[in-house]
Design brief:
- The complex is a heterodimer of chains A (273) and B (255).
- Chain A is an alpha/beta fold and 273 residues long.
- Chain A has one domain (3-272): 3-Layer(aba) Sandwich (Rossmann fold).
- Chain A is built from 10 helices and 12 strands.
- Chain A has helices at residues 42-50, 74-80, 97-108, 115-128, 146-160, 176-191, 203-209, 229-237, 240-246, 266-272; strands at residues 3-13, 16-27, 31-35, 56-64, 67-68, 82-85, 92-96, 139-140, 164-168, 195-199, 213-218, 221-226.
- In chain A, the strands form 3 sheets. Chain A has a 6-stranded mixed beta sheet with strand order 6-9-10-3-11-12, sandwiched between helices. A 4-stranded antiparallel beta sheet of chain A has the order 2-1-4-5, with helices on one face.
- In chain A, helix 6 (176-191) links the parallel strand 9 (164-168) and strand 10.
- In chain A, helix 5 packs parallel to helix 6.
- Chain B has 255 residues and is mainly beta.
- Chain B has one domain.
- Chain B contains 3 helices and 16 strands.
- In chain B, the strands form 2 sheets. An 8-stranded parallel beta sheet of chain B has the order 1-3-5-7-9-11-13-15, with no helix packed on it. An 8-stranded parallel beta sheet of chain B has the order 2-4-6-8-10-12-14-16, with helices on one face.
- In chain B, helix 1 (207-214) packs across helix 2.
- The longest helix of chain B is centred in the C-terminal third of the chain and has 14 residues, at 241-254.
- Chain B is globular and about 50 Å long.
- Chain B starts with a strand and ends with a helix.
- At the A-B interface, helix 2, strand 7 and helix 3 of A face helix 1 and helix 2 of B.
């Protein structure tokens, strides 16, 4: 069974520390809900695990089983069995979706997949996701609706069959029926042995996929690791209990807005400070 | 000037044309015209009558010192142009499309690969001389080595040409520090009741695009190649299968 182990991970971007010692594990066959207020490092963690070059790991390690992937390139991590469904998948004009999907399948498979086999795989996966096949023949994500982009991410997941899949707000942009379809796929893939790390702000998705664990990230650290009752509690009461029960002050997402706006004098405002 | 009356779809060898030629397409025609060996022709003129649909595909491989393309589009007629520029060394091309009557329409697509010491200046202009005319220009380029690639042109909607639509899109992906790429799509609008836009993008391959593709197992080089092909390959749809293969081989050999 594959296990992703993150140990005391510190990460900075443009000199600012975002992750301040993250330690957790995710194994194949389990679905972990990653919760936390906006701006506390959830998406950063997923991007760092996938090897986004924008982020700099200053200390700590990431292992997939016995393989140290901390300093691996992004494509090496994908080939090792990691997958990230992006919150905002890029639109790549001119790159035909099916060409990209085939290149990705070939890159992550041990053997080159024949054209016939690939189209059979593609046909099966698009039907499972109730996606129109013509999306595969269009430019990658270009002109796709928000929901189509998210389904296209899950389509890639189905074709690439990673060991551990990370889903960053996969439910945003999906209507009720589409969330059900995506949730069914996640459940089925979990039963097939895939591990999931899932970010969502809505209990609805978690109600459908029934995670096995929930972890909460505050101020760039995992502060809680427990069962799924955490999801219900946060959905009903927010994150305030973390302050009262754990004594952790929740940092604000951003600095307060500048008081200068249209109709005020910026020079006078700066003198006041 | 050589005059050619076109009544059916055809592949046309332009080598015998010495300097200039006029292609005449009458009314109610539906024609696909594929031109090759255009390098020695200074001026190509297309006169399109009423209610005709024309697909004009041009594949250029050798240097073009100075060439002009002019098209006059009649009422309810549409021309779709696919220009595959794989010339070496030089191309100086000046295309002018005149939309002269109601519902005259032109869709212009160009893909250009500029490399080594190529010097390429491609100007495509769309003149809306009548109300309810429609033009679109999509110029895509890849600029490498020490080459120079310039996309320019004017979309001009003349006063009184209401309900016209005009869109220009110029995109160049830049590979090397020493190449020069310029995109300057210009709008000249003298009428209020119209729809128009212009967009210019010049830059290296997006880091976010590379991350996205590498996160699916492609290497950085494979990702760059796929993205770059995305700039050039859409032009293929304007050509028959054998020319598509020829262009494909050429693209993959040079990138």
């Amino acid at each position: 069974m594959a296990t992703l182990r993150i140990n005391n991970l510190h990460v900075e971007v443009e000199g600012k520390e975002i992750l301040k010692g993250v330690t957790t594990t995710i194994s194949e066959g389990e679905t972990v809900a990653l919760l936390g207020p906006n701006g506390h490092g959830k998406s950063t963690l997923l991007n760092v695990i996938m090897g986004h070059p924008r982020y700099k790991i200053t200390s700590g390690t990431i292992f997939l089983d016995d393989l140290d992937i901390t300093n691996m390139t992004t494509d090496e991590r994908a080939k090792a069995g990691l997958f990230l469904a992006l919150q905002n998948p890029a639109e790549v004009p001119g790159v035909i979706n099916s060409d990209f999907l085939r290149a990705a399948v070939n890159a992550t498979s041990e053997e080159k997949v024949s054209t016939y086999k690939f189209y059979k795989m593609l046909d099966g996966a698009t039907k499972e996701l109730k996606m129109p096949f013509d999306l595969a023949t269009r430019s990658l994500n270009e002109g796709f609706s928000g929901g189509e982009k998210k389904r296209n991410e899950i389509l890639q997941l189905l074709l690439l069959k990673p060991k551990i899949a990370m889903l960053d707000e996969i439910d945003s942009g999906l209507d009720v029926d589409a969330i059900q379809i995506v949730a069914d796929v996640i459940k089925k893939e979990e039963e097939n042995g895939r591990g999931f790390l899932v970010i969502s702000h809505y209990a609805r998705l978690f109600d459908l996929i029934k995670p096995t664990r929930a972890i909460v990230m505050i101020n760039g650290r995992i502060v809680l690791d427990g069962d799924t009752s955490l999801i219900k509690r946060i959905d009903q009461n927010g994150y305030e209990f973390i302050k009262t029960e754990l004594g952790i002050e929740i940092e604000k997402e951003q600095a307060q807005m500048n008081t200068v706006s249209i109709g005020t004098c910026a020079v006078k405002e700066s003198i006041k400070k | 000037m050589k005059k050619i009356i076109v009544r059916e779809s055809q592949n046309f060898d332009c080598a015998p044309i010495k300097n200039e030629a006029t292609f005449e397409i009458g009314q109610n025609e539906n024609i696909a015209l594929y031109l090759y060996n255009i390098e020695q022709v200074n001026s190509l003129d297309f006169e399109i009558g009423e209610s005709s649909i024309v697909q004009l595909s041009i594949f250029a491989q050798k240097a073009i010192n100075q060439s002009k393309i002019t098209a006059n589009i009649g009422k309810n007629s549409k021309i779709t142009v696919y220009f595959a520029d794989f010339t070496t060394e030089k191309i100086h091309l000046d295309a002018s499309i005149n939309l002269n009557d109601d519902e005259a329409t032109c869709d212009w697509h160009l893909a250009s690969l500029s490399e080594k010491n190529d010097d390429k200046v491609i100007s495509v202009s769309m003149y809306h001389n009548h109300p309810n005319t429609h033009g679109r220009i999509d110029n895509y380029g890849v600029c490498k080595d020490q080459s120079s690639l310039v996309f320019s042109g004017i979309s001009h909607i003349v006063k009184g040409c209401h309900q016209s639509t005009s869109h220009q899109n110029a995109k160049i992906v830049v590979f090397d520090n020493n190449c020069k790429a310029i995109a300057k799509p210009i709008l000249k609008i003298d009428e209020n009741d119209i729809e128009a836009s212009h967009a210019a993008v010049v830059g290296k391959v997006s880091d976010e695009h590379i991350f996205y593709l590498t996160s699916r197992g492609l290497s950085v080089d494979e990702a760059k190649l796929l993205i770059t092909l995305g700039y050039l390959k859409p032009i293929l749809k304007g050509f028959n299968e054998s020319t598509q293969q020829e262009i494909n081989t050429l693209i993959e050999g040079r990138l």
